[in-house]
Structure formats: C-alpha cells, structure tokens
Known about the structure:
Blueprint: H1 7-12, E1 37-42, E2 45-51, H2 59-72, E3 100-105, E4 109-114
Amino acid sequence: MDYGFTMADVVADNTSASRFVVGVPVTTSGVDLRLVGVLLEKNGEVVATASGAASLGHPAAAVAWLVRQLAAEDEGLAAGQIVLLSGGLTAAVPARPGDVVTATIDRLGSVELGCR
C-alpha cells in the first residue's frame, strides 16, 4: 500500500505515531545500530523487515539532525528528555481491531500491541 504521506502530513500527526511504547532502558554498547534487524509481524505473519540503516543511514543521524535544527534556533535538549522517534524503519502497516502486531528488534527486544 502506498499511503502517500506528505511532509506536512508527517509533521501534523507527529510522524504517524499517535502513541509509542517506552520500556526499560537497554544498553546499545557494542551494537551497530545500522545493522540491527527489525521484524514486524501482524497476527504471526511477517509483514515487514528492515534494519537500523533505514533511518537516514543510522538511527543516531536523525537525532543529530534534531540537535542541529534546535541549535539553529538557539534551543537544545534538556537532560532526561526522551529522544525516541528517529524515524520509521518500515512502511506503515494497516491494523484492525483484533489484530496483534509484534515488533522485534535484534539484540534489543520486542514489543507486542493488541488492537482494540
């Protein structure tokens, strides 16, 4: 499916993320985030795969971009702020009530979402 999001759409709805999950912190020391695999399943079937490199070549690149943009406006990040959304690694996947979506990130963990 081609959802045809424009940049204005993405900005208006917070990067297509109306919610997100924050778990316990995990260390990424020794993990090359460019090479970390992502597996997205819906109802037990693989619907998308990706790697960390899908986010501007490296997930940290999106965070670096944010820091540069904030600095250009004489702003910055405060200690303890969560900088989580480095960009979608997979395309959007439609979900309906009753669907169960699981995202597994190699070496970092997984999260499961039941849709109501």
